[in-house]
């Protein structure tokens, strides 16, 4: 069970769910605005977006390039902070937490999958998958539990079908394999929410479908909340619900599934 | 954990960073070699100076000296008796050493020091500097040590030197007899021919010798007997190095050897008048300090006092002998400050100077210290320059790793964590760089003479010329503390150089880092 240590948590070992009552939604953004500075110009990306995701929901965010969908995902995953508005996790505002606490939330609550996989090239597949656990613990803390963690990582890697590739470096893997490795990495720390930014964007149709099937299975079997950004309507259709972003504003499209 | 893992992987995969620390390695190695050689020279030099000067030296301001050596000795015994390991009195004066070589007289200005070898060897390692106690390694003239340490230094000739003296005496005697016979023959021939004795003929090869006849006859009687004046002569005064073209080896040619007689001139005490005496060279003095070896002549104290008229009869029939300096060896040199204080109070400054050997050789030792510190500063600057190399390469690596830093941050790594990856990377490079540097430096120091021989062989020029330095081999002294500080300094520079790039890495925004192409 993932735990959170922050100024608003009680004991370190207590889970978010135990610490807080579970109001719906699990994660939400309220009127978030974000602009990036490019040279002398301020480029607005999001104009007061509201989005909320329930526990166990699979939400896809679609939109054209530059519509702000990735930015929204980054704001939800605490990779960036909104200029205006707030992000809430289980009813608690999290975007204004100290950076240490946000780092810890990223490690314990969120799992990330990126379009370009973003595996660390110097590490083997096994080490890449273990990296969130290594980041979580001190050397000694990790060393004590290394067997348990290695078993857990092996299990995750088996689950994504890469059990035979443990010692391979990312450069020795195919695109689909790298993305599956990235999914194994995002799951090894038992996150509550998986944030996937165009997970199939760099893959062929068949491999992309495999990845989406894997995500759907995770969502169904483990009630994992998934927020996925994609520009592919067909892939987005696999999600419970799809929202469309257009020029930084959100437009609900369907409540499928 | 991930910090160590990444740091280790970066070390293995980024050879460019290892290249950046080659300058650290070279800097560290150079500092160790230079310090070892300088410390070697310095400690050899200090040892030799201290050996010759002893710990504390009380000198009279005038070369006339102060009367009564015995009184001085008693005074020192009374004042600082418990601290003292040995005391010796000397007479020091400038003089001139003259000897005949190749048919010409050679003169050297010298410092003439009257010593008592027995007590002198108690205040300093006199034996270490006398050649009769050492194996001679001088090309074909190599010989075993003639004396063992059991034999206290005195003014007698070694058996070898005595044989040599007898040999040259016999030659001189033969020459004298030959000249005598020749003269008799000539006189006889003249008488037979009824001719008047011929005026000296400039074309006659024996003409010059004839004039020496008187001396030779005198020598016939005296040769073999030692002169009353006895000397230990500084080796560089009576020798010169000679490069043998055939063997390409340098050997020392001695113009005077133990057993030969030389002439010494100086002045008397009081109103200066020339004083002159013949003396037998008993031994050769070689300390390795060219300043001493080409300047000092040790003479028997009593005879020098006699020649310089420093002996005055006392009313009670005894005699008072003047001295110009007293050398004191302490049991523990750490007491020198205390002892100096007592002595300075008792020996009036208008008549005596009381100094430790370090004070007496102050400028020389200070020069060595200054030289050593300046070299260290300059060499440390090399390592500092290497620090900028690390800084640049680390910035490059941080830029190259921007996306990885973004990934780590997305996975929850803190800024401090990311920073410590690069700091420990810098630390590891520093440790590897200075570790290799220390090993290379120590190996260089260990094999320095072989390396010198190799460079000499390759370039054909002597790197370390013993003619200049008077050491057969390059002296080195390794100080563990110096090595420790050099290594710590280099590691600190490597870590400091990685601070800025590490801070930059830590401050990267995860989103920007992830988007970085």
Structure description:
The complex is a heterodimer of chains A (257) and B (517). Chain A is of the alpha/beta class and 257 residues long. Chain A is built from 9 helices and 10 strands. In chain A, the strands form 2 sheets. Chain A has a 6-stranded mixed beta sheet with strand order 6-7-8-3-9-10, with helices on both faces. In chain A, strands 2-1-4-5 form a 4-stranded antiparallel beta sheet, with helices on one face. In chain A, β7, α8 and β8 form a beta-alpha-beta unit. In chain A, α4 crosses α6, α4 packs parallel to α7 and α6 crosses α7. Chain B has 517 residues and is of the alpha+beta class. Among the domains of chain B are: 198 residues, no CATH class; 58 residues. Chain B is 54% helix and 18% strand. In chain B, the strands form 3 sheets. A 6-stranded mixed β-barrel of chain B has the order 2-3-9-4-8-7. In chain B, α3 packs across α15 and α13 runs parallel beside α18. Chain B starts with a helix and ends with a helix. The chains are: A alpha/beta (257), B alpha+beta (517). At the A-B interface, α3, α4 and α5 of A face α1, α14 and α19 of B.
């Amino acid at each position: 069970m993932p735990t959170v240590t922050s100024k608003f948590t009680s004991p370190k070992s207590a889970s978010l769910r135990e610490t807080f009552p579970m109001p719906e939604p699990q994660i939400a953004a309220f009127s978030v605005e974000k602009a990036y500075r490019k040279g002398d110009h301020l480029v607005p990306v999001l104009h007061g977006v509201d989005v909320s995701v329930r526990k166990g929901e699979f939400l896809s965010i679609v939109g054209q390039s530059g519509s702000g969908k990735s930015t929204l995902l980054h704001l939800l995953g605490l990779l960036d902070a909104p200029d205006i508005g707030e992000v809430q996790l289980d009813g608690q505002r999290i975007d204004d937490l100290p950076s240490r606490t946000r780092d810890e939330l990223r490690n314990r609550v969120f799992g990330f999958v990126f379009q370009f996989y973003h595996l660390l090239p110097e590490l083997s597949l096994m080490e890449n998958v273990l990296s969130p656990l290594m980041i979580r613990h001190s050397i000694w803390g990790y060393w004590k539990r290394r067997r348990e963690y290695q078993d857990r990582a092996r299990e995750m890697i088996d689950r994504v079908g890469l059990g035979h590739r443990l010692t391979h470096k990312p450069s020795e893997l195919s695109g689909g394999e790298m993305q599956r490795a990235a999914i194994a990495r995002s799951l090894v720390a038992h996150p509550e929410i998986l944030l996937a930014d165009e997970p199939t964007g760099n893959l062929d149709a068949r491999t992309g479908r495999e990845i989406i099937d894997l995500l759907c299975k995770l969502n169904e079997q483990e009630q994992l909340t998934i927020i996925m950004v994609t520009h592919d309507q067909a892939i987005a259709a696999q999600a419970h619900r799809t929202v469309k972003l257009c020029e930084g504003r959100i437009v609900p499209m369907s409540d499928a599934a | 954990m991930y910090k160590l893992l990444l740091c280790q992987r970066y070390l293995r995969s980024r050879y460019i960073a290892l290249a950046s620390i080659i300058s650290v390695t070279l800097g560290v190695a150079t500092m160790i070699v230079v310090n070892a050689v300088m410390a070697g020279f310095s400690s050899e030099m200090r040892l030799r100076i201290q050996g010759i000067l002893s710990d504390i030296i009380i000198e009279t301001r005038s070369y006339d000296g102060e009367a009564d050596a015995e009184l001085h000795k008693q005074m020192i015994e009374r004042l600082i008796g418990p601290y003292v390991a040995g005391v010796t009195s000397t007479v020091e004066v400038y003089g001139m050493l003259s000897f005949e070589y190749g048919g010409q007289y050679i003169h050297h200005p010298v410092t003439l020091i009257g010593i008592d070898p027995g007590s002198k060897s108690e205040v300093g390692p006199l034996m270490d500097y006398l050649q009769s106690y050492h194996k001679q390694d001088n090309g074909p003239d190599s010989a075993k040590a003639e004396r063992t340490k059991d034999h206290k230094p005195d003014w007698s000739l070694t058996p070898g030197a005595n044989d040599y003296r007898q040999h040259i005496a016999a030659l001189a005697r033969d020459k004298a007899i030959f000249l005598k016979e020749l003269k008799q023959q000539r006189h006889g021939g003249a008488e037979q021919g009824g001719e008047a004795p011929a005026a000296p003929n400039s074309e006659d090869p024996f003409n010059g010798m004839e004039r020496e006849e008187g001396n030779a006859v005198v020598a016939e009687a005296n040769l073999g007997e030692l002169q009353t004046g006895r000397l230990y002569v500084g080796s560089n005064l009576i020798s010169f190095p000679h490069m043998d073209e055939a063997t390409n080896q340098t050997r020392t040619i001695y113009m005077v050897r133990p057993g030969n007689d030389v002439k010494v001139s100086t002045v008397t005490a009081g109103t200066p008048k020339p004083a002159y005496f013949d003396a037998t060279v008993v031994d050769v003095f070689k300390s390795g300090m060219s300043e001493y070896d080409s300047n000092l002549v040790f003479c028997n104290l009593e005879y020098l006092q006699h020649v310089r008229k420093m002996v005055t009869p006392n009313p009670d029939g005894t005699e008072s002998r003047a001295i110009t300096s007293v050398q004191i060896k302490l049991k523990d040199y750490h007491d020198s400050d205390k002892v100096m204080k007592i002595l300075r109070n008792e020996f009036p400054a208008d008549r005596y100077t009381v100094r430790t050997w370090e004070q007496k050789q102050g400028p020389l030792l200070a020069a060595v210290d200054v030289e050593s510190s300046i070299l260290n500063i300059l060499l440390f600057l090399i390592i500092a320059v290497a620090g900028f190399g690390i800084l640049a390469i680390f910035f490059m690596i941080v830029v190259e790793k921007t996306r990885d830093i973004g990934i780590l941050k997305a996975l929850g790594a803190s800024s401090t964590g990311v920073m410590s990856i690069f700091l420990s990377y810098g630390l590891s490079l520093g440790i590897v760089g200075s570790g290799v540097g220390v090993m290379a430096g120590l190996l260089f120091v260990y094999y320095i003479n072989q390396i010198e021989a190799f460079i000499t062989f390759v370039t054909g020029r002597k790197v370390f010329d013993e003619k200049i330095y008077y050491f057969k081999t390059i002296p080195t002294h390794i100080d563990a503390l110096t090595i420790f500080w050099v290594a710590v300094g280099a590691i600190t520079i490597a870590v400091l150089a990685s601070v800025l790039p590490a801070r930059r890495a830590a401050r990267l925004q995860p989103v920007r880092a992830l988007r970085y192409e």
